[in-house]
Design goal:
The protein has 147 residues and is mainly alpha-helical. The protein is built from eight helices and four strands, in the order αβααβααβααβα. The chain has helices at residues 3-16, 26-36, 42-52, 62-72, 77-91, 101-111, 117-127, 137-145; strands at 23-25, 59-61, 98-100, 134-136. It is globular, with a radius of gyration of 15 Å.
Length: 147
């Protein structure tokens, strides 16, 4: 795993570690992988998650999360960027080069319906770095890849 991927995984992990306790629920790993990976085998993922959850808590620390995620991460960065650009365009219906944070809120809620309004606000504040109320493609890419 290169430094870029590690940064991306740290960012994703910290976004879903809303209690900042250094652990995330196994189900959140599935959510993160859905945003970063083209496809994965559910049974294979479940086996890996169970193997990393030695204590049976239903949660993974960052190292365990990395071992699971890197198993599925696609090496093709160009393909990932194309896919993210396509996803961004779905929400940038008018082609303005940005999406409102309200759309981002919908995306995040669709990815993880367990997020509280406060958690969503924190995540959006972290993503909308210029406090514009919109997310441009660069901010969206940074959120999705940690670049």
């Amino acid at each position: 795993m290169d430094e870029e991927q590690l940064t991306m995984l740290k960012r994703a992990f910290s976004m879903f570690d809303s209690s900042k306790q250094g652990k995330i629920e196994k189900e959140k790993v599935r959510t993160i992988l859905n945003t970063m990976v083209y496809s994965y085998d559910d049974k294979e993922l479940e086996t890996l998650l169970d193997g990393e959850d030695n204590e049976g808590t239903g949660k993974l620390d960052f190292d365990s999360f990395c071992r699971v995620a890197t198993h599925f991460l696609d090496e093709d960065d160009e393909a990932l960027q194309r896919e993210l650009k396509q996803a961004f365009r779905l929400y940038d219906k008018e082609g303005n080069g940005y999406i409102p944070t309200s759309s981002l809120r919908e995306i995040l809620m669709a990815l993880d319906d367990q997020l509280t309004p406060d958690q969503l606000n924190e995540m959006i504040a972290e993503i909308d770095t210029d406090d514009s109320g919109t997310v441009d493609f660069d901010e969206f890419m940074e959120m999705m890849t940690g670049d």
